[in-house]
Design goal:
With 117 residues, the protein is mainly alpha-helical. The chain folds into two domains: 53 residues, no CATH class; 57 residues. The chain contains three helices and no strands. The longest helix has 26 residues. It starts with 28 loop residues before the first helix and ends in a 12-residue tail after the last helix. The relative contact order is 0.14. The chain binds zinc ion (ZN). Zinc ion binds next to loops.
Length: 117
C-alpha cells in the first residue's frame, strides 16, 4: 500500500494522476496558489520555517466552527450518557453532529491577501 500524498496547503489527500508524470503536491490550483503566496509573505516578514500569517477573520471563522463542533460533541456525549436512546433520538443526535461538523468538513483556509476567485 502506498502512502497517500497530502496537499501541501490544506492537508487533504491528493489524487495522483495515473501513469507517468510528476506526482502532484497540491489538491488544487487554489491550494498551490495559497501555499505560494503564504511562502512569499513568510519570506517578506522573515518568519521562521513553519510559521505562517493568517488573516484574523479566517482564524476567527475556524475557531467559531471548532467551537460549534465542540458543543455538539459535548451535547452528544451527554445525550448518550443519559442511557438508551430511541432510533429517532439517535438520528437526531447524529444529524446535529453532522450539521455541526459540516462547516469544518468544507472549510478552506486561504492565504492572506489573496482574493477568492
Ligand atoms: Zn489542498
Amino acid at each position: 500500500m502506498t502512502k497517500d500524498t497530502r496537499c501541501g496547503w490544506c492537508r487533504r489527500v491528493v489524487d495522483q494522476p495515473t501513469g507517468r508524470g510528476r506526482p502532484r503536491k497540491f489538491c488544487s490550483q487554489r491550494c498551490r496558489q495559497w501555499h505560494w503566496v503564504s511562502q512569499q509573505r513568510a519570506r517578506e516578514l522573515n518568519l521562521a520555517e513553519g510559521e505562517l500569517v493568517v488573516a484574523r477573520t479566517e482564524l476567527d471563522a475556524l475557531h467559531d466552527a471548532l467551537y460549534v463542533l465542540a458543543c455538539a460533541v459535548d451535547d452528544t456525549v451527554n445525550d448518550l450518557a443519559g442511557g438508551a436512546a430511541t432510533k429517532e433520538e439517535l438520528k437526531r443526535m447524529l444529524d446535529w453532529l453532522i450539521e455541526s461538523a459540516m462547516p469544518l468538513r468544507n472549510y478552506e483556509l486561504s492565504a492572506p491577501g489573496t482574493t477568492d476567485d
